[in-house]
Write a structure and sequence with these properties.
AhpC/TSA antioxidant enzyme, single chain, 256 residues, PXL2A/B/C, alpha+beta
Length: 256
């Protein structure tokens, strides 16, 4: 069964109203359909992906792209996620277990079994190993890119924008000019956004991650045309690998 057929047969709880409905409902008239299968709602990748979608929301709308996202969690975690990221609740669906992920054969992440540890504890240990790059290719390089900057990526924080990470003093976007200039991703700029996300999730952990058994599960991106033909897909291989082009995660939309 191809991925579109799997999505077409899948029902999940919609965050906006709590109803269990087909995830593709209301998308039939879309010029393009972008289906995002996300890990936990408190995952680095999920939060960062939503940030990029909000940043490019006008272009996405102009291209006639309808978005549907499915993530591991419950309605409460979905509502918290939408409040924080601005992602539309009517486009977000939640599932308590990664059954859809498994049907699509997405990467489960590192799944080593450690004696005497519970399922949740095993997931935590495997997650920490993946954060160290084990079973998660490219993760460490992407972490370092957040600190050293990237001249191929756009400037992420506007000069007048104030970022409050909850750990550091509030930082104005213009502060990052001292780290190298403007008009591109400056050193520490992406790392600061990631720190803000981490503080948000850890401060509301039980809400974002109601079941920590699936911490290592990865996601995928699927883009379809009006007839349901697959135009583009990306399957995450590890943590912070939600896009093929790390500098511009939504660059695959530019060819539409």
């Amino acid at each position: 069964m191809n991925s579109y057929a799997i999505f077409n047969q899948t029902q999940c709880q919609r965050v906006s109203d709590g109803k269990s409905v087909p995830i593709l409902s209301g998308s039939q008239s879309a010029t393009y359909l972008l289906v995002l299968v996300w890990p936990q709602l408190g995952d680095f990748d999920t939060l960062e992906y939503a940030w990029w979608l909000k940043r490019e929301s006008i272009e996405i709308q102009n291209r006639g792209i309808v978005i549907r996202a499915v993530a591991i969690g419950n309605r409460a975690s979905g509502q918290k996620f939408c409040d924080y990221t601005g992602f539309p609740a009517e486009s977000l669906f939640v599932t308590p277990k990664p059954e859809l992920h498994q049907k699509l054969e997405l990467y489960q992440g590192l799944c080593r079994k450690f004696p005497l540890l519970s399922t949740s504890q095993n997931a935590w240990v495997n997650l920490m190993l993946m954060c160290a790059g084990i079973g998660s290719p490219g993760t460490l390089g992407e972490v370092f890119r957040g600190y050293r900057g990237d001249r191929q990526a756009p400037q992420l924080i506007d000069d007048e924008e104030v970022i409050d990470t909850g750990v550091l003093p509030p930082l104005k976007g213009s502060f990052f000019q001292f780290a190298g200039g403007k008009g591109f991703q400056r050193p520490f700029e992406l790392a600061t956004l990631r720190l803000r996300n981490m503080t948000e999730v850890l401060s509301n952990w039980k809400t974002y991650v109601p079941d920590s058994s699936y911490l290592t599960q990865r996601g995928g991106t699927f883009l379809f045309d009006q007839t349901g033909n697959l135009v583009y897909e990306h399957r995450d291989r590890g943590i912070l690998d939600f896009a093929a082009d790390k500098s511009r995660p939504l660059s695959f939309l530019s060819s539409l």
